[in-house]
Write a structure and sequence with these properties.
Elements (H helix, E strand, L loop, with lengths): L15 H26 L40 E12 L4 H16 L4 E2 L10 E6 L4 E4 L3 H13 L4 E3 L1 E8 L5 E8 L3 H17 L12 E9 L12 E2 L6 H13 L7 E3 L1 E6 L2 E6 L3
Parallel strand pairs: 8-9
Antiparallel strand pairs: 1-3, 1-4, 1-11, 2-8, 5-10, 6-7, 7-8, 11-12
Helix pairs in contact: 2-5, 3-4
Length: about 290
């Protein structure tokens, strides 16, 4: 006859695996406590503070001082690593040419009405003379890596374009987009179509670098002189006086007294044989060979 075990006599004992697991866990906790106590005893090293960078390594920020630039004020803030570029064709003004004599005569008459006009024509005799610019772009703002790409595009345009002739038609007044300067200019007559072709060819490149294209209906011109426009809100002192604009009678008077000579054979047509790009202070030119 089998004897029935009493339930009160049954006792549960932990298995050997559970004992080993608990023992290992206790050891880990003891080791962890030991390491933490050692860390608490060991003093933390202080981080050394780097000395400030010498000012000789920090390029000074440009200061916009209109007194050093004939009163002109920067309209686009300077950005480190950004370059201002401009694409144009030019007309050389040789010191002994009839063109230079003519332009100085016009400037003399214009200054009787606006004494503050600043000339783009060298008024003193120089061996090299100077030049008038006819813009094919607005100001272009490039990052450093974009400079060579734009040069390659302009060089490619020169290879597919031919030299052409231009002439002036009339005098006019033009004001810049920022309304800070007014210009006494001469508008292009012959050569307008060829200039427009160059401008249209530049559009894909300007779009690719996210720059504004030239004007939809461009008035191609060469500026003869400029003056600062009134800007009452500015607090920057300037040496040059400002004007509200050219007198309304000035342009009609110049066209009446000098217009025939401007478009005459004496001044005549001029050859455009190359395209130029100015990036910062560097100018590069490519001759038309198409």
């Amino acid at each position: 006859m089998k004897r029935r075990a009493s339930s009160a006599a049954l006792v549960e004992y932990a298995s050997s695996d559970e004992e080993q697991e608990n023992s290992a866990q206790d050891t880990v906790e003891l080791d962890k406590t030991h390491v933490e106590s050692k860390k608490a005893e060991k003093p933390q090293k202080k981080r050394r503070t780097l000395p400030p960078l010498s000012q000789t390594f920090v390029p000074p920020a440009p200061i916009d001082d209109p007194t050093k630039h004939q009163g002109r004020i920067r309209t686009t803030p300077h950005v480190e690593g950004q370059w201002c570029a401009h694409i144009y064709v030019c007309i050389p003004i040789r010191h002994s040419s009839s063109l230079r004599t003519f332009l100085l005569d016009v400037l003399k008459d214009a200054r009787e009405a606006v004494p503050s006009l600043q000339s783009f024509v060298a008024e003193e005799e120089t061996s090299s003379g100077n030049e008038l610019h006819i813009s094919l772009s607005r100001p272009i703002y490039l990052r450093s890596h974009q400079r060579e790409d734009l040069k390659k595009a302009v060089a490619g345009l020169a290879r597919t374009s031919r030299p052409f002739k231009i002439s002036f038609a009339v005098f006019c007044e033009l004001i810049n987009d920022e309304k800070t300067r007014t210009f006494l200019a001469m508008e292009i007559g012959a050569g307008h179509h060829e200039l427009r072709t160059l401008v249209d060819a530049l559009k894909p490149t300007l779009r690719a670098i996210r720059q504004r294209e030239f004007y939809d209906n461009p008035r191609f011109h060469a500026s003869l002189a400029w003056a600062l426009l009134d800007k009452p809100s500015t607090s920057i002192p300037i040496e040059r006086s400002t004007i509200p604009g050219l007198p309304k009678t000035l342009i009609p008077q110049l066209n009446e007294s000098h217009g025939k000579r401007l478009s005459s054979i004496q001044i005549g047509t001029m050859d455009v044989e190359q395209i130029n790009i100015k990036i910062g202070k560097d100018v590069t030119a490519w001759r038309f060979v198409g």
